């Protein structure tokens, strides 16, 4: 055996032993400084780890996910690493000692440092970021807060997220906005074609364009910056709203790279922050123009904090975001994106030759990340998802929306390859039975 490999393995096992020791010595309550002890620090910063199962095995140990349910719906909500759960627990226990004292006088002070950490990750000024509960809240703050008139047009796609579409439809009903829907036939491996579709929908009355950076139904990555550029070229005053719910802490980019004016994301998806955490970005000069959903003293203030007047909510939850950022940074966004794409391709490529298998997800890294949606001929998505769970306790998401019908599979950084092998063999078995049942019924 290669001696470097032997050394690395020995080192890895020693670190794993250290982790076990840590867990026994301080059950559930490591100090704040212990965050990094859950990770394998011997990997050098630019080392390629995409298929280094020792490295990812260590990451798996940082989560408390059940081995009895194979969770492939991380796109819905992701689990938190143990360090994040522990931090949340500590903040919660502290808050319960004297809620208003600790939440309003101590933890609330920490929001500014969470904002700084988020700004560092997002690549923007902290003065452009508000912390809230999820992408729906962030995006609806923009949708309902924009000054728009009857007859103003909004360009969006049928494949945008339902909450977002519903919010625009409410403005259509209430304020007489006109919605112009584009229909995307996914997957699309041609950015110019996508941009052309948006451009064709723009008119002199278009005031807003809505862009979903990574489409939840199929995992399609959209050329957000190119669409923003085309919008501004058509009309420099056109407002660009970007839904980053699925791309933040999944793809490697900074929010200003997308060239949008407004951006909303959830942090409980790919960042693995506590449930019910989200973030709103507004380009500095535009903040004063957006009306908050929950009114502060000065709703036209240029201070982004005016969007944080949510009333009482969980401060422990917000404070634990910082620990999720530390965990994410220790892996590194680029490594994470490469691994997620690798996991997706790992199982999809093995399925491509299964009779009746089809996917609406690209295998190319420019157009996809962790998410893939597949179908088996002759089985409804609902029945397929039920079979996967019944046979192998594989939890997925059955998707039927507009021109999309399939089962969405989303692994995460803690997913072992063996779970993906189980997925492949279960799909093979279902397809085999389904194909022979179809053959025998056609012989009758
Ligand atoms: C593309 C997209 N946008 C927005 C949302 C809303 O996220 P949340 O439910 O966290 O508000 C989701 C949720 O899955 C989504 O996939």
UniProtKB/TrEMBL annotation:
GO MF assignments: transaminase activity
Residue ranges annotated for the Aminotransferase class V domain, each copy included: 72-397
Source organism, top-level taxon: Bacteria
The keyword Magnesium belongs to this UniProt entry's keyword annotation: no
InterPro entries: Aminotrans_V_dom, PyrdxlP-dep_Trfase, PyrdxlP-dep_Trfase_major, PyrdxlP-dep_Trfase_small, TAT_signal
Family annotation (Pfam families): Aminotran_5 (PF00266)
UniProt keyword terms in alphabetical order: Aminotransferase, Pyridoxal phosphate, Transferase
Name under which the protein is recorded: Aminotransferase class V-fold PLP-dependent enzyme
Organism listed in the record: Adhaeribacter rhizoryzae
